[in-house]
Amino acid sequence: EPAIYLVATPIGNLGDITLRAIETLAGADILACEDTRVTRILLERYGISRRMFAYHEHNEQAAAQKLIDAVNEGKSVALCSDAGTPLISDPGYRLVSTAREAGVKVVPLPGPSALLAALSASGLPSDAFFFAGFLPNKASQRKTRLDQLAHIPGTLIFYESPRRLPQSLAAMAEVLGESRRAVVARELTKTFEEFRSAPLGELAAHYAEAESIRGEIVVCIEPPLQEEIAGEADIDRMLRDLAGQMS
Ligand code: SAM
């Protein structure tokens, strides 16, 4: 059926793919992927040989319109990224938002995503969480973002690169507090999968001294203590208390 199919693909272990994803990748009229070389490895594993079309951040706008035109001409389009779920810190947002505005059908094919794999096995509260993606590179912007996230009443989830991990953990410990528990999930679904759980201060110290940090990383941080969650009512009360002290 003509539509844009968002196909989740493995985040490391090539076995993590649904039957529906394989059928869709094999059967779609157009296969759009972030990096054709990466997706080719997956297709080869499942005996699929297809011509692919590159869809990445540098050609998103023009490519999105072409793909939408193709669906309007009766074709089916499968979109996948290098790993995990498209649009999750990956290209695709422009395509999906434009498609929705144009009334073009969009069909998700759920599957792996590093954030849910990390959260589900982290041991941290999973009833409410906030996915914050990658922190900004610049120290001042990183601190501002962490300040904004500090009082969210749920587990925080970040994507990180091994190179930046030590400085990010140090900033998290400084802004969110050394004692807030966190989990560094590394190399999910791969041979050297590892979960390291400790207060932020300890994690920052550990990775500051680690010789070499490799692989792909998700950081999950427990929610703030109840008394640290400032709601509007708390702020009103604080202001009234302050006013009371001054009179
Ligand atoms: N679309 C992907 C998803 O659904 O998870 C995320 C793509 S984003 C460009 C890549 C980042 O995801 C990595 O830098 C890392 O933070 C995280 N990631 C992806 N695969 C991972 C894995 N196997 N283990 C840990 N983190 C992973």
UniProtKB/TrEMBL annotation:
GO terms for molecular function: rRNA (cytosine-2'-O-)-methyltransferase activity. It catalyses: cytidine(1402) in 16S rRNA + S-adenosyl-L-methionine = 2'-O-methylcytidine(1402) in 16S rRNA + S-adenosyl-L-homocysteine + H(+). It is found in: Cytoplasm. GO terms for cellular component: cytoplasm. Its main location: cytoplasm. Residues 4-204 form the Tetrapyrrole methylase domain. Keywords: Cytoplasm, Methyltransferase, rRNA processing, S-adenosyl-L-methionine, Transferase. It is an enzyme of class 2 (transferase). The keyword Cytoplasm applies. Its EC number is 2.1.1.198. The keyword Ligase does not apply. Belongs to the methyltransferase superfamily. RsmI family. Catalyzes the 2'-O-methylation of the ribose of cytidine 1402 (C1402) in 16S rRNA. This is Ribosomal RNA small subunit methyltransferase I. It comes from Limoniibacter endophyticus. The gene is rsmI. The chain holds residues 23 to 269 of 298 of the full protein.
